[in-house]
């Protein structure tokens, strides 16, 4: 639960407490509570006391409720929001996730109101960000990972706005943990590395844990040498900042690495190191894992007596602290050993223990599913209430507008003044209507250009398929058609969207380039890279780069008649999304000469449509959108390829 202290209780600074040692903080708070100067001071002190009782949720709940009563009675919105957050924390510690979500939702509503009323107050933004992070953890604990990510990204945005770099690193780690659980290892690595970059910059000692997590991801991906490199770096960091629990976890990871490499003696040595540290600190959770690992590795070597002893100790520790997964694994290991030795009675006894633990885990998952459904209902109910509240606010606004008009009609102004006001109002309404129509026209024009782009793209692909059938035969044509159908499915999925996530555009380009590799018998390689600074919800108009990539292949690589390469890059520079397509083909001028020598000069409709799309983007966003085409020259002054650079305004698909 230490993450609660770090993420949820970040606002201890609100209470302006003196920097005493941990053992004296509560005494100091209780002394100040005897003579509070104001209700705000009293509510703040009660919230600070509640936050200190992290390991005693009943007392945490008691003082948080007292703080809420004082703040609610005095109309102190910020202190009331903090009280609800502390109540939610107490409920999380007690595994009452539905109640925790309700408490955090109350805190969220109060803080959102405060942020709207005072947009430049970073204290309110930080408070709201902490609540979003709390809701993210509740959702993650119940395996509701999409909602967890949604609220982590909300928290991330606010923490970045207020410059809370250390907390941003914590949120990045939480996001990485979710992606690791979902086995999306590349995404997990991306966010762990973002956290590590901040931790190294700020000198955060927890960077060793992040490096160890990165190593675990590499090990899961099968990149064993990178995993070992990360583990070695983490060990050096642990040497600078003492953290026995983190170091013990790292030793277990070293053991897993050596076990994977069949270096059993090395694995046993590291598992024993981890076990010694865990037992020294009384950490039975980690000790049970180390004992389980030792049981596994002794069983693999046929050392059954040693394996039985380790499995029994592991199961006992895990049962004592309620870690059912470890109980299940250890009891299964014992049952298997006794079965191999022909001891049916012992094998049956431990198999029963294994089955009991497994059933409890299944029951626990069922309870989680029920809680998750209840939480989803809470989210839906909250959204419905928010819609009703917005409708009420709109009705009130309309009523106030009518009353204002009535007051204007009876002010006694002269006819000339009334005429002037009426004319001014009419002119403004017409201007607003005209601007709205212009905006809508720009949007519809962009969608029309995109729809025009799709059939052109399909015609080009169908022409490629026809050529491929003639050149390569039925079997390769079927493979080509399979890839083409996948590409069409992706295209249709976002054909109605003005913007799609950049990852989707990359996926479409990947499929298209693989098709063209088949068509031209792999006469070129390609690489697509994305700047880590580009967030998941940054958007780009669909199929915007495809015509440039097609030209690079048809007019650059193919006429070259030797193996070539194409490099596509997405990066951020000066608040612009810069998309670059580079090929090592024959160059612009030579390509134009070849076109002039052909019997029929083909006019590129795709490039014309793309040019219009860029003009519409510029008109719609009021920001510069341009394309540069450069011919590359090698050291001998000869053409060595072409580079297309698109400078686009940053847009977000979620908007």
UniProtKB/TrEMBL annotation:
Name the SUPFAM superfamilies for this protein: ATPase domain of HSP90 chaperone/DNA topoisomerase II/histidine kinase (SSF55874), TPR-like (SSF48452)
List residues traversing the bilayer.
Answer: 408-429
Query: What name is this protein filed under?
Result: Tetratricopeptide repeat protein
Q: What is the lineage of its organism?
A: Bacteria, Pseudomonadati, Bacteroidota, Flavobacteriia, Flavobacteriales
Q: Which domain of life is it from?
A: Bacteria
Q: SMART domains, per this entry?
A: TPR
Location of the Signal transduction histidine kinase internal region domain: 445-522
Q: Report whether Cytoplasm shows up as a keyword of the record.
A: no
- Keyword Acetylation on this protein? no
Key words, A-Z: Membrane, Signal, TPR repeat, Transmembrane, Transmembrane helix
Q: Which organism is it from?
A: Flavobacterium arundinis
According to the record, where are the TPR repeats? 129-162, 169-202, 248-281
PANTHER family named among the record's database cross-references = SENSOR HISTIDINE KINASE YPDA
Tell me where the signal peptide lies.
1-21
Listed InterPro entries: Bact_2-comp_sensor_kinase, HATPase_C_sf, Sig_transdc_His_kin_internal, TPR-like_helical_dom_sf, TPR_rpt
Kindly give the Pfam families that the UniProt entry links to this protein.
His_kinase, TPR_12
